[in-house]
Amino acid sequence: MKRRDSLVLHFSNDVKTLLTIPCDSGDSIEVFGDPENASYEWRLVDEAGLVEQHSDCGYGLPAIALRDGLIAFYGLPQHGTQHVDFRPAKGKLLRQGDLPQALLRKENDE
Q: Which of 32, 76, 89, 95 keeps 20 to 30 A from 40, CA to CA?
């Protein structure tokens, strides 16, 4: 394990910690990097503040760094996943009439 300031990084500079997500067992995932250069990494930090694991690949988006940090800590889903996709089927346009009334944008104080 290493201190935060002793990580060897090839693609990002540790300019700022953007996000800290508490995880099980007292560990946390931090997303850090250099926002001006759009280069981010994740690190898994224990309760004592020492880094157990970290990335070194220069993610262009902090959300993708967070995703991979969560996967590094929790692992991939064990039971396969299913998702719900509300986009129309390919070649089929979604029309305003297809949406439930609750999702329609109200205009002119309706």
A: 76
5 phi/psi in degrees, rounded to 5 = -80, 0
- Tracing tokens 């262009």 back to the chain, one arrives at 60
38-to-7, 12, 55, 106 alpha-carbon distances in Å? 19, 9, 15, 37
pLDDT digits (tens, 9 = 90+) for 14-26: 999 999 999 988 9
* 110 in a structural domain: no
pTM of the model: 0.72
Q: Residue 100: inside a domain, yes or no?
A: no
Burial class (CB in 10 A: 0-12, 13-18, 19+), 59: buried
Structure tokens at 28: 């946390």
